[in-house]
Design goal:
The chain is an alpha+beta fold. The chain folds into two domains: 3-42 and 144-239, no CATH class; 46-139, no CATH class. The chain contains eight helices and nine strands. It has helices at residues 3-14, 21-38, 96-104, 157-171, 183-186, 192-204, 221-230, 236-239, and strands spanning 48-51, 61-63, 78-83, 92-93, 115-119, 122-126, 134-139, 180-182, 213-215. Strand 5 and strand 6 form a beta hairpin.
């Protein structure tokens, strides 16, 4: 979907058609960022990137702010690093404390088992190899959702709908003040073949609070989202 389509869908789902579009756009972008913290990594393959243009300086450093497109939350977005075009060698991430211990013990690293640590805005490779170009595999920050009809949102249609629904839940948070989650609403993201089975399992659960409603305590919203994305209705009976 485009940004305009997502805004229009939000207005339809929320029942608030007169809401200022700028405010809806802000809410959608905030929810888009939140989704990256809630959803399991393999659902976010649309954000996978590799940058093969950056090289180590004389100190083995690479400026992460130079990644293009930029990484999501900087170092948190990095999956793995390896020398450019290498299929045998991969850098292992270590902490700065571990690096200091190596130095104090007089160890200088192994070029066949290189490591890296992060500090400031830099990836610090150990041992340093000046001029070595790296393949950096990472998760990019999602493209900002715009109020236009030409810029497509990064995520799959399923995640796009989830963003809109969670944005609706945020805007109507007074409805969910007691921690309840309306599974009938989130169920819009469940494959059609699973819909009836999903709601039946939820309704049959002894702890339900009315058809399709359950409390998110001790179950978290994250749990709800993950189970919906997995499309596995049966696991409710084992985890609720």
């Amino acid at each position: 979907m485009t940004g305009q389509q997502m805004i229009n869908l939000w207005k339809m789902y929320s029942g608030k058609p007169d809401t200022d579009r700028t405010l809806v756009l802000l809410l959608l972008n905030l929810t888009q960022e939140k989704i990256l913290q809630l959803v399991t990594r393999h659902y976010l393959h649309d954000l996978d990137e590799v940058d093969s243009s950056l090289s180590q300086d004389s100190d083995g450093r690479v400026d992460i702010t130079s990644l293009s497109p930029r990484a999501w939350e900087d170092f948190n977005g990095i999956d793995f690093i390896r020398p450019k075009d290498s299929t045998l060698i991969q850098y292992t991430k270590i902490s700065y404390t571990e690096y200091r211990k190596y130095i104090e013990c007089g160890e200088f690293g192994n070029t066949m088992q290189p490591e890296y640590y992060t500090r400031g805005d830099y990836i610090n490779c150990y041992p340093a190899s000046s001029g070595q170009v790296l393949d950096i595999y990472y998760r990019k920050a999602p493209t900002t959702i715009l109020d236009d009809d030409s810029t497509t949102v990064d995520f799959t249609t399923r995640i796009q709908h989830l963003i809109v629904k969670l944005a609706c839940m945020t805007a109507n948070k007074e409805v969910f003040a007691d921690g309840a989650v309306d599974l009938r609403e989130i169920n819009l993201t469940v494959p059609a073949t699973e819909s009836n089975k999903f709601l039946k399992d939820v309704d049959n659960y002894g702890g339900r609070r009315g058809g399709g409603w359950i409390r998110s305590n001790p179950i978290t919203t994250v749990d709800v989202i993950q189970k919906v994305l997995d499309g596995d209705a049966g696991i409710w009976q084992n985890t609720l």
